[in-house]
Design brief:
With 225 residues, the chain is α/β, with parallel strands linked by helices. It has one domain: Class I glutamine amidotransferase (GATase) domain (Rossmann fold), CATH 3.40.50.880. The chain contains 8 helices and 11 strands. It starts with a strand and ends with a helix. This is GAL3A protein.
Length: 225
């Protein structure tokens, strides 16, 4: 039997939800790995709604679960219903929705709060010694919830202009966690905590390199599961 994996979304769209290419890449690699996947999202209002054509906020109100259902092709459940006992692993794609809806990192940085259902999900998988996969900005969730863990969001310096959000690595270190520098096509495995991370769109790279990096994360998660 394939591994049972929960995928947690944060909306639909890079600027206010889950990054669509990252979510799709994770699903493709999970499918290739023979995993049985179920998709979840919190049933909450988005922090904001962004017009992705103009890159500016609108006055709209949208629900994270309803928007995530677009990516899940309608086959999705409320995150409150996720039971870690029914799965072998959990994966969180990135996107600003992680930093806006799953936690308040976008506003509060290292002083952020984490959504109660996101926090309880992470704690449940960690306590059960089941692997947690995170990409792009979502490793900050682990950094906030599990002090002392190891994660990567790419590089800690903006090398050749490819890592414009490199300061995130410093904020992770300030939380008492260890940031491991990795390239976009690599992932880092914190074996002690069974946390696997990759930088994805935290690096300005061709889409296929981001896709491959997410593939290494998914493969490592499935190995640990």
């Amino acid at each position: 039997m394939g591994k049972r994996v929960a995928l947690v979304l944060a909306g639909c769209g890079v600027f206010d939800g889950s990054e669509i290419h990252e979510a799709s890449a994770a699903l493709v690699h999970l499918s290739r790995g023979g995993a049985e996947v179920k998709i979840f999202a919190p049933n909450i209002e988005q922090r904001d709604v962004v017009n992705h054509l103009k890159g500016s906020p609108t006055e709209e109100k949208r629900n994270v679960l309803v928007e995530s259902a677009r990516l899940a092709r309608g086959n999705i459940q409320d995150l409150a219903e996720l039971k870690a006992s029914e799965f072998d692993a959990v994966i969180f794609p990135g996107g600003f929705g992680v930093a806006k809806n799953l936690c308040s990192w976008a506003v509060d940085g290292k002083n952020c709060t984490v959504n109660e259902h996101v926090n309880s999900t992470l704690q449940a998988f960690h306590n059960a010694k089941k692997p947690i996969g995170l990409c792009c900005i979502s490793p900050v969730l682990a950094a906030k919830v599990f002090p002392g863990c190891e994660v990567t969001v790419g590089q800690d310096k903006n090398i050749d202009g490819r890592f414009p959000d490199a300061e995130t690595a410093s904020a992770i270190a300030e939380l008492g966690c260890k940031h491991i520098c990795k390239n976009v096509n690599e992932s880092h495995v914190d074996k002690a905590n069974k946390i696997v991370t990759t930088c994805a769109f935290m690096c300005k790279a061709p889409l296929h390199e981001i896709f491959d990096g997410i593939g290494t994360m998914v493969q490592e998660v499935l190995k640990l599961a």
